[in-house]
Amino acid sequence: MNRLNQHINIFIATHKVFRAPAAFNSQIYTPIQVGIKPNMGYLSENQLDNIAHKNTWFYELTALYFLWKNVKSEYAGLVHYRRFFASKFNQSKILDRSEMELILSIYDIILPKKFTMGNITVKDQYIKHHYLKDWDLTRKIIAEYQSDYLEAFDKISRQTSLFPYNMFISKKEISDEYCEWLFGILFNLESLIDISYYDQYQQRIFVFLAERLFNVWLWKNNDRFTHYCLPLQNSGSSQNNERIITQSTVYYKKGQKNIIRV
């Protein structure tokens, strides 16, 4: 079977060789090597329609772009080599095919549980660590080219929590819609700013903004798509494979404002 056309295709974005976690299933999980580097034996994004040359400042978004442009699976998603969705029933294992298919037969998108930042807002947290001018320019782009998302952008800006890590699993058609919206904004932003004087960390502006923009897109489309949130399994480094499990599972149903934790 063509790897890019398998029924479920969850990309594991990685820049290094990593140890596969418990319950790893190669029929649904596909490690993808990001950036232009010597081949490590994984699927390389440096082929077909790709933006691998942008990996220094787009990070895992180059894998997301490759997923959008080249994968023909029914279901698609993105996780990281050291961060996976955990099973609700056994949090020492990553999400497997049967549980995933059960969830997606009822809900539209699988997400990590929300990360709460205390009393600081999403906007204030961003500008505390990055540049206000880039945040403001992003808002200006949305106001000019995606004005129906401006209310959502301002709403997320004032919130004190967000879905983190650019991680999700959904039908491919849903992720395609999101990617078309996201990369339209990011490429526009890229054409307007000069990051050559940014340090290596700040050059990752696009992946930092995408994490917030995903929440904007989700909020705007809340009436169209339902979300099911799972704990995460963080696998530490590639050497020791230590795991830290996020303990609570959160469910969000369409039109439901309350959060149910189990």
- Helix coverage percent of residues? 25-40%
Largest sheet: 9 strands, mixed
Order of helices and strands: EEEHHEEHEEHHHEEHHEEEEE
Number of domains: 1
Q: What proportion of the residues form beta strands (DSSP E)?
A: 15-25%
Mean pLDDT, rounded to whole units?
88
Structure description:
The protein is an alpha/beta fold and 262 residues long. It has one domain (8-234). Helix content is 34%, strand content 19%. It has helices spanning 55-58, 61-70, 97-104, 122-129, 132-145, 150-158, 172-192, 205-220, and strands at 8-14, 29-33, 43-44, 75-80, 83-85, 109-112, 115-116, 161-162, 168-171, 227-230, 232-234, 244-245, 250-252, 260-261. Strand 13 and strand 14 form a beta hairpin. The longest helix has 21 residues, at 172-192. The termini are far apart. Mean pLDDT is 88; it is low at 236-262. Residues 10-221 form the DUF4422 domain. Pfam families: DUF4422 (PF14393). InterPro entries: DUF4422 (IPR025536).
Topology diagram in text:
Blueprint: E1 8-14, E2 29-33, E3 43-44, H1 55-58, H2 61-70, E4 75-80, E5 83-85, H3 97-104, E6 109-112, E7 115-116, H4 122-129, H5 132-145, H6 150-158, E8 161-162, E9 168-171, H7 172-192, H8 205-220, E10 227-230, E11 232-234, E12 244-245, E13 250-252, E14 260-261
Parallel strand pairs: 1-2, 1-4, 2-3, 6-10
Antiparallel strand pairs: 4-9, 5-11, 6-9, 7-8, 10-13, 11-12, 13-14
Helix pairs in contact: 2-7, 5-7, 6-8, 7-8
